[in-house]
Amino acid sequence: HPNGVILVVGLMNSILKVLDVKNASCLANFEGHKESGSGPINCLSSIQNRYSLETISTQSTMFKLWDLRRPSNYHSIELADYYKPRRVKWDYSGQFISAFGDYLRVWQNKTWKQFLRI
Fold first, then answer.
1. Are the C-beta atoms of residues 87 and 56 closer than 8 Å to each other?
2. How far apart are CA 23 and CA 32, in angstroms?
3. Rg (CA), the chain
4. Does 2 score more than 60 pLDDT?
5. Which of 112, 32, 27 lies closest to 66, judged by CA?
6. Which of 18, 32, 88, 111: disulfide with 28, CB 3.0–4.6 Å?
């Protein structure tokens, strides 16, 4: 996180917790994965110096994008039923996001159009 004192953890109960390390307090709970019943969170990814966080849970065929400034899921990308991504990652520029498991898929930021599938 840009200010260096926030830690985000994904829990087995599908909840994300945003923690203030300096003050030892919980700033927010993100419950979007819990609502969809998609299992424990198994991947968190973010871009340095930005307030965006991406998550994948174990039983889900989607990944979610969150805004750390307010506990909101601002975008979700649904994948095919058979495709369960294991990791999600931004490129260094923040222009592209990829999800990979059995396949690799890449989307362009802002338009969210998939332009690569391998």
1. yes
2. 25
3. 14
4. no
5. 32
6. 18
CB count in 10 Å sphere of residue 57:
24
Grouping H, G, I as helix, E, B as strand and the rest as coil, residue 23 is: coil
Name the β-bridge partners of 46: 53
| Domains by residue range for the chain, with CATH | 6-89 (2.40.10)
Q: Which residue has the tokens 């898929």?
A: 105
Residue type present at position 93 = S
Query: Could you give the CA distance from residue 61 to residue 9 in angstroms, rounded to a whole number?
Result: 20
Question: What is the spatial distance between Cα 118 and Cα 54, in angstroms, rounded to a whole number?
Answer: 21
Q: Please give the pLDDT value at position 1.
A: 54
59-117, pLDDT tens digit by residue?
677 788 888 777 778 888 877 666 677 788 888 888 888 888 778 889 898 888 888 88
117 with 101: CB under 8 angstroms? Answer: no
List of residues 6+ apart from 70 with CB closer than 8 A = 28
Residue 79 near residue 99, CB atoms below 8 Å:
yes
